[in-house]
Design a protein that fits this description.
The chain contains 11 helices and 9 strands. By secondary structure, it is α/β, with parallel strands linked by helices. The protein has one domain: Vaccinia Virus protein VP39 (Rossmann fold, 3-Layer(aba) Sandwich), CATH 3.40.50. Helix 2 runs parallel beside helix 3 and helix 10 crosses helix 11. The structure holds S-adenosylmethionine (SAM). Belongs to the methyltransferase superfamily.
Length: 276
């Protein structure tokens, strides 16, 4: 299933802003790895509701410049409403079209929990290379597909969808995560092929914890802007949610429901001279 950008709504956007702690924390680690500093000009691709952006804006300060872009209007509206920095702007846009940004103008570009959703990754990286200053850096966090498909929420979801009545009507390989995610070596190859110098790639296990099964479903829907079960026919989707919720509940302890999560942290740089 191709990623759909028309399933989002105000409720999903608000929920994401409230319960995206895991993305926010991983994003902060990425920002540290990128060495973002006061005065930097930063491009946040897939900024969502701007939660990580606000953290970056605090770091770059009054002398810095920040642009956050995201295709989802509901999320950009929340980001705009919370923005107080005079040199920060949030606007709708996609990774594949950075035509509003000048060549060689950005110190740091980042995509926090975004790259797996980008349909044309090669064009996006070409655009990122163009807007980065020589020596500028791009940082990416994204699920390590080789591990995320066999662990965590996806494992439980698929175990339910393999049962009757879903098994005859749902192809697990059609999930958006399956269609658009990347294994680690694919990401490295894409970065290198785009002409970026790969500086650091790490796959980290980061646990996620949710109070209830309902919270897991809410998070999965909000973070995928409605795409979580879009490979399940409309007539079965609500029942599938209930069955997945029941399955998740079996894994709840007094500490809630804990999942393994595997995230790739990648940093690459625009070469300053002719690469050899
Ligand atoms: C899980 S959210 C991450 C939001 C934020 N970066 C964070 O760290 O919390 C994924 C975001 O990617 C955005 N997205 C999807 N396709 C995109 C594209 N082609 N270009 C830029 N952003 C995209 C979505 O609109 C969504 O807001």
């Amino acid at each position: 299933m191709a990623v759909s950008l028309i399933l989002d709504n105000e409720e999903l956007a608000k929920t994401y802003d409230q319960i995206s702690d895991s993305q926010f924390n991983r994003g902060r680690v990425l920002i540290e790895k990128l060495g973002v500093k006061p005065g930097d000009s930063v491009l946040d691709i897939g900024s969502g509701t701007g939660r990580l952006g606000r953290h970056v804006i605090d770091i770059i300060g009054r002398s810095g410049h920040y642009v956050g872009i995201d295709p989802l209007e509901e999320r950009i509206n929340i980001a705009k409403a919370k923005n107080e920095h005079p040199n920060a702007v949030f606007r709708t846009g996609t990774a594949e079209d950075l035509s509003s940004i000048a060549d060689n103008s950005i110190d740091v570009v980042y995509l926090s929990s975004v790259f797996h959703w980008v349909l044309d990754k090669e064009t996006a990286l070409k655009e990122i290379l163009r807007v980065l200053k020589p020596g500028g850096k791009v940082g990416i966090t994204t699920g390590a597909k080789e591990l995320t498909l066999v662990s965590g929420v996806r494992l439980i979801t698929d175990s339910v969808l393999k049962r009757e009545p879903y098994n005859k009507l749902v192809r697990l390989e059609d999930s958006t995560q399956n269609q658009h995610g990347l294994v680690t070596t694919e990401l490295i190859q894409l970065l290198a092929k785009a002409g970026l110098k790969v500086k650091d790639v790490q796959v980290k296990e980061i646990k996620r914890n949710y109070a209830t099964a309902r919270d897991v479903i809410r998070f999965s829907e909000a973070s995928s802007f409605g795409n979580y079960l879009n490979h399940v026919p409309d007539s079965l989707r609500e029942q599938a949610k209930l069955d997945i919720e029941a399955e998740l509940e079996k894994h709840r302890t007094e500490d809630g429901i804990e999942f393994d999560g595997y995230t790739i942290f990648a940093v690459a740089q625009k070469p300053s001279g002719t690469p050899i």
